[in-house]
C-alpha cells in the first residue's frame, strides 16, 4: 500500500503542476492574455490607420506633382511657342521681301517679252506668210 500511496502522491503532485489549483491565478493569467491580445489588436488598428494615411498622403503628393509638372510643361510650351512665332515673323519678313522682289522681276521680264513679241509681230507674220506662199523645193539628199 505504501507503493500505492506514493504513486497517488506523485500523481497528485503532477496534477498540481499541470492543473491550476487556484481559480484566481487562472483568471489573472487569462485576463493578462486577453489584455495583451487587445493591446496587439489596438496596435494593429493604429498601424493600419498610419498606413492608410501614408497611402493617402502619397496619392495626394503624386497628384500635386502631376499638376505641378503639367503647369511647368504648359509654361515651357508657351515660352517655346512665343520664341517660334518671333523667329517665324523675323524670317518671314525677309522671305516676303525676297518673294516681292522676285515677283516684280518676273513681271518686268514678262512685260519685256510681250513688248518684244509686239514689236516683231509684223515681221514674224510676214515671214510665215512668205514661207507658206513661196515654196522653194529642195532635193532630199
TrEMBL record:
Keywords: Hydrogen ion transport, Ion transport, Transport. Coiled coil: none annotated. GO terms for cellular component: vacuolar proton-transporting V-type ATPase, V1 domain. Residues 86-120 are annotated as: Disordered. One of its GO terms (molecular function) is ATP hydrolysis activity. The keyword Ligase does not apply. Pfam families: V-ATPase_G. The keyword Ion transport applies. It comes from the Eukaryota. Residues 86-112 have a biased composition (Basic and acidic residues). NCBIfam families: V_ATP_synt_G (TIGR01147). Subunit of the V1 complex of vacuolar(H+)-ATPase (V-ATPase), a multisubunit enzyme composed of a peripheral complex (V1) that hydrolyzes ATP and a membrane integral complex (V0) that translocates protons. V-ATPase is responsible for acidifying and maintaining the pH of intracellular compartments and in some cell types, is targeted to the plasma membrane, where it is responsible for acidifying the extracellular environment. V-ATPase is a heteromultimeric enzyme made up of two complexes: the ATP-hydrolytic V1 complex and the proton translocation V0 complex. Belongs to the V-ATPase G subunit family. This is V-type proton ATPase subunit G.
